[in-house]
Amino acid sequence: MRIGALSQRTGVSVRLLRYYEEQGLLRPVRRPSGYREYREDDVRTVQNIRTLLAAGLNTQTIATLLPCMIDDDQGLAPACPEMLSDLHREQERIDKAVADLLAARSVLDVIVAATPSPAAAESVACHAVDGTASAGIDASLNNALPSPTRRR
């Protein structure tokens, strides 16, 4: 299949498929006409590349890892035991990223819980318009804005 067909089947742009080739992740056969010819299993390879990229692996690591992986339609399975320490290191990195994201989510949860609802915010805005809460705002604005008679 040609690059456009692979792009359609995988949802990955032609430009990105060319990038994967430049990085050594895909190795299409070149026809005498110069066109790239992809095999059926390249569809699965592209899907695996996307999965590994989404897991946070860089293309250099993926290029090292892909030749050592067996895809038996059940997912990727390691074929090179010597990659195990690298894979454990990647797992630890991902676990840390997940923990960092969960911590950030907790902070956002606290902020969201402490933020008044839009209805409550409208109530405050209404008081400002009717003058009941505007005295403090007016004083702040007067101090923040230059007086028309004052020079800078």
From TrEMBL:
HTH merR-type domain span: 1-68
Alphabetical keyword list: DNA-binding
GO molecular function: DNA binding; DNA-binding transcription factor activity
Pfam families given in the database record: MerR_1
InterPro entries, A to Z: DNA-bd_dom_put_sf, MerR-type_HTH_dom, MerR_fam
SMART domains: HTH_MERR
Membrane-spanning ranges: none
Protein's UniProt name: MerR family transcriptional regulator
Species of the source: Nocardia speluncae
Lineage: Bacteria, Bacillati, Actinomycetota, Actinomycetes, Mycobacteriales
